[in-house]
């Protein structure tokens, strides 16, 4: 045994993984799945019968939760797939800046200023018109695999 101290430099970030493994045969419609490195919501699952080479296969049709693109993947049902940790958090909208960023109030009273307005035109219109009318708005922010985006809006009444 040596008395030397060893220093290790870690290049990875501390904390939880962005995904977790789940057997393909157990993933259902409305579940989440990583296809081509993107977090997706499953809209259709079909399973083929066991073939000559032994594996039943799952055919997934899913929609990217951030950009709305449709993606497909075929995985043997006994193999593991990556499933993203998807979180949804509500924040109160404080301000909209000229360059398209929003200022949000977190639960602990801090502000979060690193999110852009959504690219979805209908949601964008609802947020802008509600903010201009002086309403108290709460936005839902979906986060997965290091990305965040505003995905919903609640009107909690006029400002006092």
TrEMBL record:
It comes from the Eukaryota. SMART domains: eIF-5a. SUPFAM superfamilies: Nucleic acid-binding proteins, Translation proteins SH3-like domain. InterPro entries: IF5A-like (IPR001884), IF5A-like_N (IPR048670), IF5A_C (IPR020189), NA-bd_OB-fold (IPR012340), Rib_uL2_dom2 (IPR014722), Trans_elong_IF5A_hypusine_site (IPR019769), Translation_prot_SH3-like_sf (IPR008991). Residues 1-12 have a biased composition (Basic and acidic residues). Pfam families: eIF-5a, IF5A-like_N. It comes from Salvia divinorum. Keywords: Hypusine, Initiation factor, Protein biosynthesis. The keyword Nuclease does not apply. Translation factor that promotes translation elongation and termination, particularly upon ribosome stalling at specific amino acid sequence contexts. Binds between the exit (E) and peptidyl (P) site of the ribosome and promotes rescue of stalled ribosome: specifically required for efficient translation of polyproline-containing peptides as well as other motifs that stall the ribosome. Acts as ribosome quality control (RQC) cofactor by joining the RQC complex to facilitate peptidyl transfer during CAT tailing step. Translation factor that promotes translation elongation and termination, particularly upon ribosome stalling at specific amino acid sequence contexts. Binds between the exit (E) and peptidyl (P) site of the ribosome and promotes rescue of stalled ribosome: specifically required for efficient translation of polyproline-containing peptides as well as other motifs that stall the ribosome. Acts as a ribosome quality control (RQC) cofactor by joining the RQC complex to facilitate peptidyl transfer during CAT tailing step. Residues 85-154 form the Translation initiation factor 5A C-terminal domain. Residues 1-23 are annotated as: Disordered. eIF-5A seems to be the only eukaryotic protein to have a hypusine residue which is a post-translational modification of a lysine by the addition of a butylamino group. The gene is EIF5A2. Gene3D superfamilies: 2.30.30.30, Nucleic acid-binding proteins. GO terms for molecular function: ribosome binding; translation elongation factor activity; translation initiation factor activity. This is Eukaryotic translation initiation factor 5A.
